[in-house]
Amino acid sequence: MMNALAALHVERPLWLLALVPAAALWLLARRGSDPAQQWRSVIDPALLPYLLTGGDQRVRIPPADWLFAAMALAAAAIAGPAWQREPSPFAEAKPTVAIVLRVTPSMLTEDLAPTRLDRARQKLADILAAREGASTALIAYAGSAHLVLPPTPDSAVILDLAKALSPEIMPKQGDDLAGALALARRALAGIGQGGAILLLADETLPGSVESQPAGSPPVTILALRDAESAGLAEVAKTLGGMVVPTTPDQSDVAAIVRRLDRGDNASGIAGEGDHWSEAGYWLVPILGLLALPWFRRGWGAA
């Protein structure tokens, strides 16, 4: 109890200044409701109590007092009294992920029906559904890398844009995987929330990437072909990442989601930790009770 009292404070102390006009209005209302006030200037004060009638019928708690109590309580509630801390609602937020999608003619191969590119989109939809609410960026690359969408929690927009990607619209053919990874790192660094990179690709050229800079987001690769023959295993080794082969069931999606949502990917997420828990809402029922007398006819004039 003593610890709670020692920690008691208000989050918005300026709202307590509303007590000043409330007190002024209360004094004016008290003076205006005093039936003896208007006679004090013309009747001897010693005789005044004996000349006035009905003084013993005054309301025990006049409306002005009730009004002042309601205004004071409202000011205290809005000021945000708090005395204990609680976990932030964002502390468990899932880390942001940058999706890097290869969009080249080889991705139109039909060994993964209907095509490798379509299968990549299907897996992307499953991953987004499993990480509902998490922010995701989308990067497309071929001979050049392009930020299609910065981090957003709107999975429907991400999927719509992914469906619109095709090799025909890419401005340059090739395999600029290094540029795509660098773009993904910049997209994640721009929001300062840790995160991870997910590469969806069917192959890559030997020596297409170098070791990542220290502190870079971890990389996971969804291989749409045999990782060894496609060069993706070498890329994963160079980047210190992990290769997940595409499967006909959801086991690949489950493995990827577990890796993307690891706690060490979420370092620095905004809102991590705890915050003061405001308790002003507990005063609202009392405010409701103080307002009840005004539903009585003639109360305000009492």
Automatic annotation (TrEMBL):
Domain VWFA: 98-202
SUPFAM superfamilies: vWA-like
InterPro entries assigned: UPF0353/GerABKA_families (IPR050768), VWF_A (IPR002035), vWFA_dom_sf (IPR036465)
TM stretches of this protein: none
Pfam families linked to this entry: VWA_2
Gene3D superfamilies: von Willebrand factor, type A domain (3.40.50.410)
PANTHER family per record: SPORE GERMINATION PROTEIN, VWFA DOMAIN-CONTAINING PROTEIN
Protein name: Ca-activated chloride channel family protein
The species this protein was found in: Bosea robiniae
